[in-house]
Design brief:
Blueprint lengths: L5 E8 L8 E6 L12 H5 L6 H9 L7 E6 L8 H10 L3 E6 L4 H9 L5 E5 L4 H8 L4 H14 L3 E7 L6 H13 L6 E5 L28 E3 L2
Parallel strand pairs: 2-3, 3-4, 4-5, 5-6, 6-7, 7-8
Antiparallel strand pairs: 1-2
Bound molecules: iron/sulfur cluster (SF4).
Amino acid sequence: MFPKPIYDITPFTMLDYPNHLATIFWFTKCNIRCVYCYNKDLVFGEGKISQEEALVFLNSRVGLLEGVVLSGGEATLYSDLVAFCKKIKQLKFKIKLDTNGLNPEMIQVLVANKLIDYIALDYKAPKEKYYEITKDKHFDSFSETLNFLIKKQFPFEVRTTVHRDLLRVEEINRIIKDLLKRKYNGTYYLQPFVFTENTIGRVKEEKNPFNIAQLSKELEVIWRV
Ligand code: SF4
C-alpha cells in the first residue's frame, strides 16, 4: 500500500462530476502507459498526500461540496481504496471514479458495496489497437468491466481520447459498433488529444483530419472539448 497515494487535490470543480460540485483526488501510479498520456508526474511520481490528510480536507468541505472524483493515474491500484471510500461515504459525499477499467475485481467490490455512485470508463482503443495505444495486453480485463457495468445497469459513461493519427474515424465507429453489440445505451464521449511535447510515447502533433460527420449515428456521441 502506498502511504501517500494522492499526488494532488483539485479543491473545486464544476466540470468533472456531472451535475455536482466536487473535488478531485489525483492518485499516483497507473497500470498502463498510454502513448498520449501527459500525466507523467502521476504515472511515475510519488504521492504527496495521505488518505488521512485527504479526509481532513474533505471534512473541511462538508456542506460545501457534493462529490469526490477519484482520478489519476489509476485510483483502483490503491489497495486501501475500499476502506478509503467507506470513510468518504461516512462524510456523505458522492463518489465518481475515473478508470481505465483494468481492475474489474476492485470495481466489482466497490459497486457491490455501494461505494461508488458514477464511473467514467476509458475505452482506449478497439481490441486490435489496444496495445499500440496503451502498451498493455489486457483488453479482456477492460472488457469484463464494461460488460459488468452494462449488466448491472450502473450509472456510467464511456469515453475515448482521440489522437487523430492514432485513432481514425473508422476505429471510433468500430468502438461504437462494439458498444451497441454489448447493449450500452448511454452517451459516448470523445475528448480531443491536446498536444504537449512531454507525453509518455512522445507522440507528435496530429496531422490527420477527423471528420465528425462520418461518425456513426447509432449512438449518442458527444465531442467534449
Ligand atoms: S492516460 Fe493512460 S497512462 Fe495516463 S494516467 Fe490515464 S490510463 Fe494511465
